[in-house]
Amino acid sequence: MAKRERVAFLGLGIMGKPMAANVCRHGYELTVWNRTRAKAEAFSELHRGVEVADTPAAAAAEADLVVTMVPDGPEVEAVLLGPDGAAEGLHAGGLAIDMSTIAPTQTRKIATALSQRDIHFIDAPVTGSRPKAEDATLTIMVGGEKRDFDRAKPLLDAMGALVVHAGPVGHGEMVKLVNNTAAAINAAALAEMLNLAVKADLNTTAVVDVMASGSGASTMLTLKAGPMLDRAYAPLFKLEHMLKDVRHCINEAKALGVDLPIARLAESLYAKADEAGYGEDDFAAVIEAVSPGS
Amino acid sequence: MAKRERVAFLGLGIMGKPMAANVCRHGYELTVWNRTRAKAEAFSELHRGVEVADTPAAAAAEADLVVTMVPDGPEVEAVLLGPDGAAEGLHAGGLAIDMSTIAPTQTRKIATALSQRDIHFIDAPVTGSRPKAEDATLTIMVGGEKRDFDRAKPLLDAMGALVVHAGPVGHGEMVKLVNNTAAAINAAALAEMLNLAVKADLNTTAVVDVMASGSGASTMLTLKAGPMLDRAYAPLFKLEHMLKDVRHCINEAKALGVDLPIARLAESLYAKADEAGYGEDDFAAVIEAVSPGS
């Protein structure tokens, strides 16, 4: 059996922390870095043998595989390519695995910059929220060379239940955008139909039961019909983040010469809800753009 | 235990035949009528004790409960209220149960005409195709008085797995329209996203697997992603029928002062596919309106 590769995990936020914990549980030698160092120290106290690094470069110097899990594109770029970034520490032939959700165009730009230093790169964003990160049941979609996907697979299997190779660099992010935009449209359509059901004075329990039993069923129906009918928006996934994903998707499609009229209409509804002050709420609040609650 | 009510079943088409067979299997005394009498004769040869009537009126004269399962509104009106219609035979206090899919406005009109003859009425359209009709696992959504719903419930339970009371007359049809329109939008959104996936050269198997595992999942994804990607449209539910339902839904909403912008956009796509000659195909062919196949 090949010697197991050493891992640097950069970013111990809401998602990164439980993901890194699963990597640790699978017996990987692990060095962690976090912008707020106290979080990395706390993590290392909980997980025996985990080292804490002062900079991304220092963490990467101890590793063969570098995982980044940070908020958005600029942070990924800074942590990998900025001063004291991982690219300064990682040896030639090392593999950077970005699990953040960022625009595919930015992903490709970062991959190109890293390849000039002989550092391999894959994008591997995830779907599923914190409980799935904790249970290692995330869905992970990967863009990159097949060889790099195969190399990262055992590590990704430690964090996810479904790990798929979507195509070349950027395609992991692209699959995530396609999925999230489909979800955003299904949720907006659900809001439109539930509003009609209420206005038509239908028994909404009957409506939801009927839809759940057949052709109208969807994950969005299961998760969002209740919050929409109750107008209760405790955030599982913030509306402003869903809006960002739909916009990224529309822009990527435009660059390919593909128009997305349904996604554009959904975008206008999420934007309206965002402007009405629901950006920090769960995206179930899109029903406020369809019909403001009383 | 109350004496079981006698049933007249009018319309033995693709759906009506297996539904009537299940009524028969549950031990109901049954008289059948069909426009083409030979089909009714064949049915009665298969099911011992079933009587065949010459007219809807003659069938209804033997019954307490009259079920109609015919193509559209004009046929329901003719079979119930036309010359030799069921209303001429059914006794005062009898209950007519329309299981066809027709416009809610026409449903209410029929109910009013029947009530003038002291005949009760409920609308009870179904979702689920022929296999579910055969297995008695249809979803049945009922509009009408609670008392009439309770009276029909044992008979409907012989044909369906989920039987819900949606509200007053017309609400059964309305719930069906809401469900089908949600399905139509989800399918149109799926077509838009799969077209993008193809144009972006994504691994479409990975895309479908990722969507099926989480927020992008829907019954439409399960049933229609394959036909859309294969451009294979063997009809399970014809595109022209889906278009009709979406149009009914938009019109009913308009009468209530409710705008359905997403449904209107979906309508335009189904209409475009219909005009391109896909009306008789499965509604998965909506992808032809998003992007014509080569």
Could you explain the architecture of this structure?
The structure is a homodimer of 294-residue chains. Chain A has 294 residues and is of the alpha/beta class. Chain A folds into 2 domains: 7-167, Rossmann fold, CATH 3.40.50; 174-290, N-(1-d-carboxylethyl)-l-norvaline Dehydrogenase, domain 2. Helices cover 54% and strands 13% of the residues of chain A. The first copy, chain A, is built from 14 helices and 9 strands. Chain A has helices at 16-25, 37-46, 56-61, 73-81, 86-89, 104-115, 130-135, 146-157, 171-199, 204-212, 219-230, 239-255, 261-278, 287-290, and strands at 7-10, 30-33, 51-52, 65-68, 95-98, 120-123, 126-127, 138-143, 160-167. In chain A, strands 3-2-1-4-5-6 form a 6-stranded parallel sheet, sandwiched between helices. Chain A has a 3-stranded mixed sheet with strand order 7-8-9. In chain A, strand 1 (7-10), helix 1 (16-25) and strand 2 form a beta-alpha-beta unit. In chain A, helix 4 runs parallel beside helix 6, helix 9 crosses helix 12 (239-255) and helix 9 packs across helix 13. Chain A is elongated and about 65 Å long. The termini of chain A are far apart. At the A-B interface, strand 9, helix 9, helix 10, helix 11 and helix 12 of A face strand 9, helix 9, helix 10, helix 11 and helix 12 of B.
